[in-house]
Write a structure and sequence with these properties.
This protein is an alpha/beta fold and about 450 residues long. It folds into two domains: about 5-65, no CATH class; about 70-360 and about 420-450, Aldolase class I (TIM Barrel), CATH 3.20.20.70. The chain has 19 helices and eleven strands. The protein has an eight-stranded parallel barrel with strand order 4-5-6-7-8-9-10-11, surrounded by six helices. It has a two-stranded antiparallel ribbon with strand order 1-2. Strand 1 (about 15-20) and strand 2 (about 25) form a beta hairpin. It is globular, with a radius of gyration of 22 Å.
Length: about 450
C-alpha cells in the first residue's frame, strides 16, 4: 500500500490526474475514486516519508477542489437560524475516533441518501491525543471520504471541545492558553473552519455571584475568538462555539447564558470593536460524555432536560442572534429521544461514543483483535481502574484509547469486516439524519453557506 518513492506515486497518477504547480486536472473521475484514492489516503495517513505524506495530502485536497468538495464554515447557516429564516432541524456533529475513512464514508452515504448537507465531522482536543489523529490528517481523511462517495458541496470539519485543562491552567495560565492557540492555529491551517471553544472547565461554581462564576469562561472564550478571527482565511468567517456548562456537571440555565453572553460580548468588544462573536452555545442538560457504564457494562439511563434546552435555544436566538443551543454527549441516548432535539430548537447535537460502541460490539469485529486491544488496555491503563469498578466498566471507559495504538490495524481490517461495520453505521446515521430532521437540507445549506 505504501508508495516507496515519489516516482512510484507519480506513475500511479498517469492518465488519471495531471498535476500542475498549484492545481490539478482530473482526467478520469472514476479512476480517481477507485483504488487510486484508497491508496492515496492510506499514504496520506501512514507513509513515513514526509515528502510522500505531504504530497498525497495536497493531491487529495486539490482533487477534491477540482471535483467540488471544499471545507467550509457553517456560520451562514447558523446566522440564518438566528434570524429565524431556518428552523426545524438539528445538525448532527459526528466525532470519529477510529476506522475513520470507513466511518466517514458511511456518514457521507447516509447524507447522500437523505439529500442532507447539514452535518459536521469533528474531533475533540482529547480525541486528537488518544487517537493520534492530528488536524491535517483528520481533515484530509474526511475530505477523501466525501470524494470517494461522490459528495459535492461544502464540508464542515470542526474542532470539538478545544478545551482549557483546569488543572494545567491553574498551574500556568499563559502556557495552557498558548497550547490552545497552537492547536487552533494548526486546525485552521488544516481546514477546520468550525471551532468549539470550551473554557467552561474554568467555571467556578463555588462563587455565589453568577458573573464571577462565568468570568474566566467568557474572558478566555473572547480571547480565543479574537485569535481565531486573526487567522481566518480570506472570505471565511469561522463558526465559533462557546460553552456555559461543563458536560457532566450542573445543568445550565437561561441566566447562565445571559451572564456569559453579556460578559463575552463586552470582553470581545474590547479586543477589536466589531469582531464576529460565537454562533452557538453548548449547554449541560443532564448527559455525560460516553454515558455512565453500569457494572455489567450497560449504560445507565439519563433524564435529559429538554425544557431547559428549549428555553436556552430560544433565548440564544432571540436575544443574541445565535443558531441555538448545542447538546453534547447524545450518542448513547435511547433512540426515542432524538426527535426531541429539532422539536426543542436545538441547533447542533454532538455524537461520539455510540459509534465507537457499534464498531467494537459489531458481530463482524474480529474477536482476536478485540481481545488484543483489551489486553493492551488492561496492561497500559491499569492505573485508571477505580476501586470497586468491574472489568466491564473499565473496558467501556478505556477502549476509546485502543484506536491510536492500533490505528493501522483498524485501517487494514479485511474488506468484508470494514464493509459490514460500515453498513451498520450507515444505517444508524440514516436513522439519526431522519430523527434530527436534516433530510433535504442540502439546498438550504448551499443557499446560506458560500465556501471561499
Amino acid at each position: 500500500m505504501r508508495y516507496r518513492d515519489i516516482n512510484e506515486l507519480n506513475a500511479a497518477l498517469k492518465g488519471v490526474v495531471d498535476v500542475g504547480d498549484v492545481k490539478v486536472s482530473v482526467v478520469n473521475k472514476e479512476a480517481v475514486r477507485g483504488d487510486l484514492l484508497d491508496r492515496l489516503i492510506f499514504n496520506a495517513v501512514f507513509n513515513e516519508n514526509a515528502e510522500i505524506l505531504n504530497k498525497t495530502r495536497w493531491l487529495i485536497k486539490a482533487i477534491a477542489l477540482e471535483l467540488g468538495v471544499k471545507s467550509a464554515s457553517i456560520q451562514g447557516l447558523y446566522d440564518a437560524m438566528g434570524r429565524g429564516e431556518v428552523n426545524g432541524f438539528s445538525v448532527p456533529a459526528i466525532n470519529i475516533r477510529g476506522l475513520s475513512y470507513e466511518v466517514a464514508r458511511a456518514v457521507i452515504r447516509a447524507a447522500l441518501k437523505n439529500n442532507s448537507g447539514a452535518f459536521i465531522f469533528e474531533i475533540a482536543r482529547s480525541e486528537i491525543g488518544y487517537t493520534k489523529q492530528l488536524p491535517p490528517e483528520f481533515a484530509v481523511v474526511m475530505i477523501a471520504a466525501a470524494l470517494k462517495e461522490g459528495y459535492k458541496g461544502p464540508l464542515f470539519i470542526q474542532g470539538d471541545h478545544f478545551q482549557a485543562n483546569a488543572k494545567k491552567y491553574q498551574q500556568d495560565p499563559a502556557k495552557e492558553i498558548d497550547t490552545l492557540k497552537q492547536l487552533i492555529k494548526d486546525a485552521i491551517a488544516a481546514g477546520f473552519y468550525n471551532i468549539d471553544i470550551d473554557s467552561s472547565t474554568l467555571v467556578d461554581l463555588s462563587n455565589p455571584d453568577l458573573k464571577e462564576q462565568q468570568r474566566l469562561n467568557f474572558e478566555i472564550a473572547a480571547e480565543l475568538t479574537a485569535y481565531i478571527r486573526q487567522l481566518e482565511p480570506k472570505g471565511v468567517t469561522i463558526s465559533v462555539g462557546g460553552e456555559i456548562g461543563e458536560v457532566g456537571g450542573k445543568n445550565s440555565t437561561v441566566e447562565d447564558l445571559r451572564v456569559f453572553m453579556e460578559g463575552y460580548l463586552e470582553t470581545l468588544k474590547g479586543k477589536g470593536g466589531s469582531l464576529k462573536g460565537i454562533s452557538k452555545i453548548s449547554v449541560q442538560t443532564g448527559t455525560s460524555h460516553g454515558g455512565v457504564p453500569l457494572p455489567d457494562g450497560t449504560i445507565a439511563k439519563v433524564k435529559l432536560d429538554f425544557d431547559t434546552l428549549e428555553k436556552i435555544s430560544a433565548a440564544a436566538r432571540k436575544e443574541y442572534g445565535l443558531g441555538g443551543a448545542v447538546q453534547h454527549g447524545a450518542s448513547t441516548l435511547p433512540d426515542e429521544a432524538f426527535h426531541r432535539f429539532p422539536e426543542t430548537g436545538t441547533a447542533e447535537v454532538h455524537l461520539a461514543t455510540g459509534f465507537q460502541n457499534m464498531t467494537y460490539d459489531s458481530k463482524a469485529f474480529p474477536h482476536d483483535f478485540k481481545e488484543e486491544i483489551y489486553k493492551y488496555l488492561r496492561e497500559t491503563c491499569a492505573e485508571e481502574k477505580k476501586a470497586g469498578e468491574s472489568d466491564e466498566q473499565f473496558i467501556y471507559k478505556t477502549r476509546k484509547k485502543g484506536f491510536g495504538p492500533f490505528r493501522e490495524k483498524f485501517w487494514t481490517l479485511p474488506e468484508s469486516v470494514r464493509k459490514a461495520i460500515g453498513d451498520e453505521l450507515e444505517a444508524k446515521f440514516d436513522f439519526l439524519f431522519k430523527k434530527l430532521n436534516v433530510v433535504n437540507t442540502y439546498d438550504t445549506v448551499v443557499k446560506y453557506v458560500k465556501p471561499s
